[in-house]
Design brief:
The complex is a heterodimer of chains A (85) and B (602). In chain A, 75% of the residues lie in helices and 5% in strands. With 85 residues, chain A is mainly alpha-helical. Chain A has one domain. Chain B has a single domain, classed as Sodium/glucose cotransporter. Chain B starts with a helix and ends in an 11-residue tail after the last helix. In chain B, 58% of the residues are buried. Classes of the chains: A mainly alpha (85), B mainly alpha (602). Chains A and B meet through helix 1, strand 2 and helix 2 of A and helix 5, helix 10, helix 11 and helix 13 of B.
């Protein structure tokens, strides 16, 4: 593979990881905490429902996990394509 | 020891610490002044970012915003944290790889246009200056309340302190003082929260207490709170009341606005490697979450305590068994001393409207329900707890819960740490834009390294002076700045940075047209409802939900502004000549991490 092809493949792989992470990011915040909250109404948690938990606590915890997942996944990808520092 | 001596001791000790760090970490070069020589570890940078980000608004106001609105204001919790995911995935690593000192510099290089750079500078200045006014006002207020000096004396003391460590230390000094300020503010925020959670729920972790059991009644705490506030005729705490569309758009505007704030972005220029920038965003969010997951507990528990103070029967049994507190008790009892203390500040007030010697607290706007029947039956003349300011939820928290004097003193030091650390970060972003983008980049490109360092220090000193003067005479729009700062960052800076990284085909004409379209549409929408330049009475449309276009509030419009920016930039780029080859190569190079070290020198 030439340099250009390799860096193109690296970028495409990065984009795929980003799409996945952004989907989860949107799902926990806009999805579970706001739009789909009525659907989660039946799952009780501490005097309220799961949607409320996502809105005030769950989404923040998911955000943290997402960033560390992305950082770790990218370190692996960087090494695979030999573009790490 | 008197409360005043304690306050003086805690605030004085924290200030001595900040100045000590500043003297130890003086900046000797522009690389140290703008980017701490890129030698900050990701964890340390994460902690500094958390202090940089969490302002007087996060520390003092956010819990109150949630307390009096409940679920609907979860937007602030998600919006002000979700932005870090965007930063880590879409901006920080690439801008770190780019390896220069300011945000407008990237805009200018990627869009091969000094005009784009100047527009970037203008956006940065509007966003950062509106933001810094709020911090300086917060410093003045905190000083005057806890140290018994006048508001303006407090502001000048704060300004002198920021001058010491920001002008001397630049990014290097600011980084390490921010770490110290983070420690002070997180301790100050957590201690009262732990005590209150223990008192109400028996759980020492406020995060668990929020979803735990209210010990005195045996009910789930949030269910108990819901019952109590609806008994008083207020809206249910955990329920969704406002428009779903607007809630989504507002959360989005806060998220992309957060990711586009220059003073947050430049913090990621200080880490050694691209991979560190990704990791550091994660650490920043960990440290931010330590406060942001406590805030909803503080808000709901303080609301409960305040309400239960006014309805003593609520703690255990039937809410209506004691629907009022006597004026005599408020004026004399030791457990209500906090009410008298805070009445002096004007943040809390009451008035016995019907002269029955009792103070009744309820929602007099409610038209049905038991509380309305009670009001009619007893001949009440309306709610008698006339003022309850949002900020009281955090500031008076230790006193409401009867905590010792040193806790009150540490909350004062924490509030100051939150305001000062954010002010310093903003001032650095402002001075960088002036000395690096305007002076070195545009007016005098041949300026020496030493000359630029001096220019950076002078512009920092001038920015402090301007911020202080604005803090002394806050313009009428100070309260509206959240909408403005986040709206502009969301509609201009975030989209242009993202397109600069993720597209090779967006041209300079596209970027300039996009930024202008984003800013202008957002400003027009905000001004149409809030008044031209926030001068009251000049608004063209009444600022109510019924009048908003598709129910979109002015504060949420940044999301729409960002969309307009993207669309215009795309369309104009299609019609104009492709970016030159070297710009396309620049984009290629920022997309791969390798070589970030060598990019430092330029």
């Amino acid at each position: 593979m030439s340099d250009r092809q390799s860096s193109n493949a690296y970028w495409q792989a990065n984009l795929r990881i980003i799409y996945g992470c952004i989907a989860v990011w949107a799902l926990v915040s806009y999805g579970a905490a706001i739009i789909f909250r009525p659907l989660l109404q039946s799952i009780p948690i501490g005097g309220t429902d799961l949607g409320f938990w996502f809105a005030q606590q769950g989404s923040i915890l998911c955000f943290i996990v997402l960033i560390f997942f992305y950082a770790a996944r990218m370190n692996k990808l960087d090494a695979e394509y030999g573009v790490d520092e | 020891m008197s409360q005043f001596t304690l306050n003086l001791l805690f605030i004085g000790a924290s200030f001595a610490l900040y100045i000590g760090i500043a003297i130890y970490c003086r900046a000797k070069s522009t690389a140290e002044f703008y980017a701490a020589n890129r030698g900050v570890s990701p964890v340390v940078n994460g902690m500094a970012t958390a202090a940089d980000w969490m302002s007087a608004a996060s520390f003092i106001s956010m819990a109150g915003l949630i307390a009096f609105t409940g679920y609907d204001n979860s937007t602030y919790l998600m919006g002000w944290t979700g932005g870090y995911v965007l930063l880590a995935l879409l901006l920080a690593p690439y801008l770190r790889k780019f390896g220069k000192f300011t945000v407008p510099e990237f805009i200018g290089d990627r869009f091969y246009s000094p005009t784009a750079r100047i527009i970037g500078v203008i956006c940065l200045l509007i966003v950062s200056i509106t933001y810094v006014i709020g911090q300086m006002t917060g410093v003045g207020v905190t000083f005057s309340r806890y140290l018994e000096v006048s508001n303006s004396t407090g502001l000048w003391i704060g300004a002198a302190l920021v001058f010491c460590y920001a002008v001397l230390g630049g990014m290097k000094g600011i980084t390490y003082t921010q770490v110290a300020q983070y420690v002070v503010l997180i301790i100050a925020y957590t201690i009262p929260a732990v005590f209150i959670s223990l008192q109400l729920t028996g759980n020492f972790l406020p995060q668990l207490g929020l979803f735990g059991t209210h010990e005195a009644s045996g009910m789930a705490f949030l269910a108990k709170l819901d019952m109590l506030v609806t008994d008083l005729g207020f809206r249910q705490y955990t329920a969704h009341h406002n428009s779903t569309l607007d809630m989504v758009l507002f959360t989005m505007a806060l998220m992309i606005g957060t990711a586009g704030l220059p003073h947050v972005i430049i913090r990621f220029f200080t880490v050694p490697k691209v991979s560190d920038a990704r990791k550091s965003a994660g650490w920043a969010l960990v440290f931010i979450a330590l406060l942001y997951t406590v805030a909803p507990a503080v808000g709901s528990m303080a609301r409960f305590n305040l309400t239960a103070t006014m309805w003593p029967g609520a703690q255990t049994g039937d809410t209506y068994s004691q629907p009022a507190v006597s004026l005599d008790s408020i004026q004399n009892d030791a457990d209500k001393a906090w009410m008298r203390n805070w009445q002096v500040t004007g943040l809390l007030n009451w008035e016995d409207k019907n002269g029955d010697g009792l103070i009744q607290y309820y929602n007099d706007a409610a038209t049905t329900g038991p509380v309305t029947e009670m009001a009619t039956a007893q001949g009440l003349a309306g709610n008698e707890l006339t003022t309850v300011n949002n900020d009281i939820m955090v500031l008076a928290n230790p006193e409401i819960a009867n905590l010792p004097g040193w806790v009150i003193a540490i909350v004062a030091a924490g509030g100051l740490a939150a305001a000062l650390s954010t002010a310093a970060g903003l001032l650095l972003a402002i001075s960088g834009a002036v000395s690096h983008d305007l002076i070195k980049g545009t007016l005098r490109p041949n300026i020496s390294e030493k000359g630029e360092l001096m220019a950076a220090r002078i512009s920092m000193a001038l920015s402090i002076l301007v911020a202080t003067l604005l803090g002394l005479n806050p313009p009428g729009f100070a309260a509206q700045t959240v909408a403005l700062a986040f709206g502009l960052a969301a509609s201009s800076i975030f989209p242009v940075l993202m397109m600069g990284i993720f597209s090779k085909t967006v041209t300079k004409e596209g970027a300039i047209a996009g930024m202008l379209a984003g800013i202008i549409s957002t400003l027009l929408y905000i001004f149409a409802y809030k008044g031209w330049f926030f001068i009251s009475g000049t608004n063209m449309l009444e600022d109510t939900a019924a009048n908003w276009l598709f129910g979109i509030s002015p504060a949420s419009f940044g999301t729409i502004g960002a969309l307009i920016n993207f669309v215009v930039a795309y369309l104009v780029s299609q019609a104009t000549e492709k970016p030159p080859v070297e710009v396309q190569e620049l984009v290629e190079s920022i997309r791969v991490p390798r070589g970030s070290g060598s990019a430092v020198m330029h």
